[in-house]
Structures are given as C-alpha cells and as structure tokens.
Design a protein that fits this description.
With about 130 residues, this protein is mainly alpha-helical. The protein is built from seven helices and three strands. A three-stranded antiparallel β-sheet has the order 1-3-2. Strand 2 and strand 3 form a beta hairpin.
C-alpha cells in the first residue's frame, strides 16, 4: 500500500488525475478506505442486533480470536462479562472491547453511501 496515499495524490476533489500514476494512487487510497470500512462490518452487524453488548462468541469473531481465548481473558479479568441492563442475558460491552472506538450505525451508513457515490462518480468519469 502507498503510505499516506491522500497526500501523494496532489490533486484532491473534483480535479481529474493528470496521469496513470495519479489515478493509481487515487485507487490505492480508495482501497485503503474500503479496507477500513470492511474492518468495521462485524461491529456494525453486532450493533444492529444488540447496540451495547456482544456474546462471548460475537466478541471472539469481532476480535478475531477463539471463544476459548475470550473465556480465558474473562477468567483473567482482562475482559469483563456483565449482565446486560434490562435483561437477564450476559454480554461483553462493546465499548470495553474497542476502548471507545465505536462507529454509530447511522454515521457508518452515511459514510458508506458517500463512498459508493464517489466510486460511481469516478467510474463514470474514467469511462
């Protein structure tokens, strides 16, 4: 990946890339942004079903580790399993897993839609 592809672009916004190198840098920048969006997909799915907590299995998927490892971390006290307010269920607070790095669903949807429109605009422009 290109380090700091946004600054390498030179021309940002509505200007057309001046060369194939600029176009490639712009594409690489878009790919980096899409990769960042994909990294949050699991969180967004979890948020749409339970806005505050994940099950042990859900936490394992979101963290990319096994259920057994999450259970070991709960036993060690590095992850806290708590009762979900207003229910008898237990879960792991999403904020505790991501230390405040949490994307509200409405904001994420808006960002993804804006990116889709921008990619469509670029495709149309480069035809």
């Amino acid at each position: 990946m290109v380090p700091d592809a946004a600054s390498a672009l030179g021309a940002v916004g509505n200007e057309a890339p001046s060369s194939s190198r600029d176009l490639l840098r712009e594409i690489l920048d878009r790919i980096e942004r899409i990769e960042a969006y994909l990294a949050t997909v699991q969180l967004l799915v979890a948020q749409s079903t339970d806005p505050t907590h994940l099950s042990i299995e859900g936490a394992a998927r979101a963290l990319g580790m096994s259920v057994k490892t999450v259970r070991h971390r709960i036993a060690a006290g590095t992850i806290t399993l708590e009762t979900i307010p207003g229910s008898n269920r237990r879960g792991i607070a999403i904020d505790a897993l991501y230390k405040g790095w949490w994307v509200p669903l409405a904001v994420a949807r808006t960002a993804v839609e804006e990116e889709r429109h921008e990619l469509a605009r670029l495709k149309e422009k480069n035809r």
